[in-house]
Amino acid sequence: MKSAILAILATLALGAAASAHALTAAEYQAGLAAAAKAAEPAFAGFSAQRGEAFYRSTHGGDWSCATCHTDSPTQSGSHAVTRKAVKPLAPTANPERFTRADKIEKWFKRNCNDVLKRECTPREQGDFIAYLLSVK
Ligand code: HEC
């Protein structure tokens, strides 16, 4: 009985450690892969090439992701309207990127609505991250 309680406590401690630890882009992407598979049964993995095309496209509007995040996601950019500096998006250049789920979700939502006038799909988000992880 005592050992069962200890085992449960150990599991809880591990769970707490896991939720406190900073996320990585690859971990966030793994969650997107599950969502993409659920949305599109034919989903066969993310593509950095598709992600780059997505990054550079204006999707029929005025802005692309590159408008504020620059042609190269390893560079600092600036906001198209406010001119406020935006640090590099690529995790190689900015290790803080894709380490906080709340921040990632907030900005995907806002920026996808600004650029595509809708939310990005899980596949689009995963392709986008695949591209950011591919740039050195
Ligand atoms: C109008 C300017 C603008 C455009 C266009 C834009 N972004 Fe951003 N983006 C920002 C700003 C500002 C931030 C938040 C400041 C920061 O984190 O440096 C940000 C942050 C992000 C983040 C947060 C990443 C993290 O973990 O810190 C993601 C994801 C993101 N943008 C995705 C996109 C995608 C996808 C597109 C294209 C569909 C896009 N952005 C287009 C301005 C823009």
Tell me the number of structural domains. 1
Kindly report the spatial arrangement of strands forming the biggest sheet.
1-2
- Please tally the helical runs, counting DSSP H or I stretches of 4 or more residues: 6
CATH fold call: Cytochrome Bc1 Complex, Chain D, domain 2
Largest sheet descriptor: 2 strands, antiparallel
Number of strands: 2
Low-confidence stretches: 11-18
Mean pLDDT: 89
The CATH class, by name, is: Mainly Alpha
Q: CATH homologous superfamily, by name?
A: Cytochrome c-like domain
Share of helix, binned: 55-70%
Q: What is the CA–CA distance across the termini?
A: 53 Å
Helix/sheet category: mainly alpha
Rg: 18 Å
Order of helices and strands: HHHHEEHH
Which outline best applies?
Answer: globular
In percent, how much strand structure appears in the residues?
under 5%
Label the CATH architecture: Orthogonal Bundle
Bound molecules: heme C
